[in-house]
Design a protein that fits this description.
With about 190 residues, the chain is α/β, with parallel strands linked by helices. The chain is built from seven helices and five strands; from the N terminus they run βαβαβαβαβααα. Helix 5 crosses helix 6 and helix 6 crosses helix 7. The longest helix is centred in the last third of the chain and has 49 residues.
Length: about 190
């Protein structure tokens, strides 16, 4: 079963919504609609979305500044649809934001390509975030192991090599990780203080 992606569409345009719903198949996406920025921000505070599609102008404001706020505050990608005559200005203004700008009117193929590109960008972002999480965990684990080695060196006058070997041997003998051994050693030393 495919994990469905929640997409927030912010649009006052009645013509675009059926086209977007058609391009975002229900077996892959859960489409949530807002007709105002106020309502969109309220939904974003309460739910998480894969990305957002914003069509300017919106009922309560134009939407470019709010698209920046949505992208940066709620940490999601935004596919921003603006009129062709302001496309260059908006693109230049948003060049450092995680926002893909498309000019309107456009055809279905370009709109679909924009959606596919947002999917790819969000997938790559998630992949990088997962990799960063793994690396942070690895660094934290190594810090615990180093802290335990330091305790063995200070408390029992082990050499760095002997402390390293000791942690590895205990981990192998008890079928646990070196981090678990390190945390156990740190706890024992704290109790003895």
């Amino acid at each position: 079963m495919i994990n469905k992606k929640k997409i927030l569409i912010v649009s006052s345009g009645e013509k675009l919504i059926p086209v977007l719903k058609e391009l975002l198949p229900v077996n892959e996406y859960i489409v949530n609609l807002s007709t105002t920025i106020h309502d969109a921000k309220k939904k974003l505070r309460n739910e998480s979305f894969y990305f957002s599609i914003v069509q300017c102008p919106i009922k309560d404001e134009f939407g470019v500044k709010s698209s920046q706020e949505i992208a940066n505050t709620f940490d999601i990608g935004v596919l921003l649809l603006v009129k062709n005559d302001i496309f260059d200005q908006v693109t230049y203004r948003l060049k450092e934001d995680p926002i893909l700008v498309l000019s309107m009117p456009t055809n279905r193929q370009v709109l679909y390509q924009g959606i596919c590109l947002m999917n790819t960008l969000m997938f790559q972002k998630q992949k990088m975030e997962n990799e960063i999480r793994k690396l942070r965990k690895k660094i934290q684990d190594q810090q615990k192991i180093n802290q335990a080695k330091l305790l063995l060196i200070e408390q029992y006058h082990y050499s760095e090599e002997k402390a390293h070997h000791y942690i590895e041997k205990v981990a192998m003998d008890h079928s646990i990780t070196k981090v678990e051994v390190a945390m156990s050693l740190i706890e024992k030393v704290k109790k003895n203080e």
